Amino acid sequence: MQLDDYQWSRNPRGMHVMSIFQTPLPIERYTAMRAGWCKIIAAGFEYVDDCATLLSLGITPVVRLYLGRWGAAPMNLFWRDVMLAFRSVGVRWFEFYNEPNLDVEWPMGTDPDWRNFDGMIKPLMDNWLTWAEFTVSIGGYPGFIPLAESDNLPYAAVRWMDEFLNYLHRAHKERFRAVLANGAYCATHPYILNHFYQTVPGGGPFALRRPEEQRADEPGWHFEYPYDPVCQRSDPGRTVYGGTAQTPNGDPVGLIAMGRMFNERCAMLFGSQAIPVVGTEGGIWPFRNGVFQQDTRYPPYTEQNHPEATAAMFKWIAEQAPPWFFGLALWKEDEYYAPDAVRAIGRMGELPVVAKAVPALDTMGTTVVIADDVRPLASYGPGPIQGTATYHFLLLAQGLESSWFFDTARAYWDTFRPIVTTDLSLIDFVSFQESVAITIISPPDLMPTLSLAAAIPYPNAYLDLITATDSDEIARIFSERVAVNRRFG
Fold first, then answer.
1. Strands 367-369 and 374-376: what pairing?
2. pLDDT by residue (tens digit) across 43-81?
3. Hey, is 16 helix, strand or coil?
4. Distance between the two ends of the chain, CA-based, in angstroms?
5. Which of 266, 254, 264, 184 is nearest to 222 (CA)?
6. Does the global pTM surpass 0.85?
7. What DSSP string runs through 251-304?
């Protein structure tokens, strides 16, 4: 498939229903905000007629099968019949399983842990893949399992996602590739806190507007966390995977962060180019009173600028987000409407919908679409990684000696045995039939130069960046990796 083959409204604005058994839906709540998505929670057949109405109004439903404490159990005949009923009225977007990194999705007394391979990772992926193949067979789009965007062990979303995709690569590579090529998408839950801001025109990247000065219909908005200038200035090198001492378990709390991770990992493991992503719940929480500043690096938000930021977020999705990011369903209807509609609803009603222009881009192809970066898969140097890199190089920045590394991170070397070097040209001796991962240890001022020095000549290499200021910090990072038996951050 191509990205533009997926059938949806092209309108990124969405809302999540209040609950199960809410039928008939108060459709006027969706038309008031000019919605293009509606996230449905179906415990049975109760929303089938509502979905037909939504589709007639140009609103695309996403149906999550409400399983309760289902754990990793497979789909059954009941859920097959429910899906067929929704499909009969035109529904294509489906979800099965939800936030398995939270205990509420498992039988009572179960503690979710990404390291529980036999009890959680394997059965979830085996059963999800069978369900996904059925969904494709009826002309539907199967959503990859959304995760609660935690950065705390054992719930950390980045750890869970890696375990899911690495297992699929080992056990079901071609089956999963076929699903990716025929309608799969990734469902995410981006609750983005206050990870957004608007700059002053002409004031530079760090001239931030005060909350009361923000305007949805004016430029300068940033929703690309953790890759935005404010985050990178305060913690250089931070990515969704982590990569810094402050983020040992990754940092998934951004609008497109987990979708970016899914696309990058699938490109590396399965040769995909751009897989659609839909935030099926999340957004900027609609607080009604007070000042909210969950991350002090970013401006706070209030009831006054929440409408501006919410409307701007959807405009940013349409105009600046990667082509694979299709939209977001705000969590959730009653929070936005009870007892009265919050101001964001009226603000979206005032502003025209900005449609997303979706390119005719193959989901499986010869480039990797990340954000504003379309990177060809090179046919020179080390080749693409298939599962695990053939070689792991650990590059030390200028001024760092190998003896210092062995004194600082001996346990890491004993466990993983990387090739420790200060000479990047050693990678020139690796053939295209082999692959490379490069861990770079550098102070903040040298990291951009070293990253480019590795990325440009070796575009197929996986880069693992560690930015730190002293040996104690380096030692802690590597000790934590050894403790969880994880080679990369």
1. antiparallel
2. 999 999 999 999 999 999 999 999 999 999 999 999 999
3. strand
4. 32
5. 254
6. no
7. ---STTHHHHHHHHHHHHHH-BS---EEEEEEBS----SSEE-SSTTS--EETT
Domains of the chain by residue range: 3-364, 378-483
CB 43 within 8 A of CB 64: no
Regions of the chain short of the pLDDT cut 70: 366-380, 386-387
- Confirm if 246 and 221 have CB atoms less than 8 A apart: no
- Specify the 3-state DSSP secondary structure of 454: helix
User: What's 3-364's CATH class?
Assistant: alpha beta
Angstrom distances, CA of residue 58 to CA of 27, 93, 324: 12, 14, 20
pLDDT tens by residue, 18-28: 999 989 999 99
Do 3-364 and 378-483 show the same overall fold?
no
Phi and psi angles of residue 188, each rounded to the nearest 5 degrees, phi first: -125, 165
Beta strand 277-282 pairing with 185-188: parallel
User: Kind and range of the H or E element at 59?
Assistant: none
Tokens of 434: 């082999």
State the fold for domain 378-483: Rossmann fold (3.40.50)
What distance in Å separates the CA atoms of residue 103 and residue 457, rounded to the nearest whole number? Answer: 45
